[in-house]
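The following record pairs a protein chain with its ligand, alpha-D-galactopyranose.
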Amino acid sequence: MNVNSLKAEFFSRFGGEARVFRAPGRVNLIGEHTDYNDGFVLPAAIGFATYVAAANRDDRTIRVSSSDLDGEYRFDLDDQGSRVQGWAKYVQGVALLLESEGFRLGGADILITGDIPIGAGLSSSAALEVATGFALTQLAGLDIDGMRLARICQKAEHKFAGVRSGIMDQFASIFGRDGHALFLDCRSMEWSAVPVSSRFLICNTRTKHDLAEGEYNKRRAECESAAAFFGKPTLRDVTVEDLERRSTEMPEIERRRARHVIYENRRVLDSVKALRSGDIAAFARLIDASHHSLRDDFQVSCRELDVMVEAAKRQPGVLAARMTGGGFGGCVIALMEEDAPPSIADLISAEYFAETGVMPEFYERRITGGVRELRERRRDLPEA
Ligand code: GLA
């Protein structure tokens, strides 16, 4: 994919000259299911992205189609009640929410493409929301604060896709920084960039269980109920000491959920320290512990993710591995030694296939910057 061919495709579908915007997907290094508990996360934007080619129209209609996905959709910016189906609901959600929050947009023609594996837990939907929201505000000549855009995109996920997601994915797609993970406090929304020089292999299980979205909302409710047990607004407000003192009185589910979130927050803080001091062995231990906690206490792993984690960890050159993202399928990230050979992917693949019968995929991607407009031809090529 390059900008000129996307512009050419735009021209043949809609006519006219388009501007092109890029929003990346993400991996989360650590801090899983902590964002909606007002906790800490450590994601990184990666060199997979959604590209939006867009041009103003002189009415209030948005027309949207995709090079890779079926369908052409249209909706009216003045019709807050209508709902389009399929993937375009993310586009409509962001556009209508921007409007209802006072950002006066114009109609636009939009062509979407990208290389983020869909449904793999690498935030293809957040990247679509962010790319669209950024493109529409830019076309309308509006300045929007990055955090405001992240919130509006998150709201689109809640209201148009029915998933009560946290802020992490949209935040990472907007604020990504080359070579850095993003350490975010989801309560204060303060963040800092943490340099990452380690290599990560992204291992796609190529499975996604249907229960993912329902279970996600359920986990969120269970966390709320666990916080209520302590009389606190969120699990961020519950300390390790509170938990240990009262854990035997708690119902089983709430105890497990609380234990994951409270210790995972601590693991994020420890990971930031480890990365800043170059203690990769400590970081590796935290990654492994995070997976165990997600598997046993938060119960959002699945057989394929566990098989992938174990297959990765058996390879010399892999220091640690964990599921990344919401769970119930999607991807594992494996932390690799600096000089790990590329053949590691083949070895993991063979073991994973033998146990699951599913052919996985592997990617090693740079950590990249966040959403931006693509202007220069030289920078058009997707970052590998
Ligand atoms: C999904 C959500 C995020 C976050 C992760 C789990 O990716 O969109 O907000 O909750 O799951 O850490």
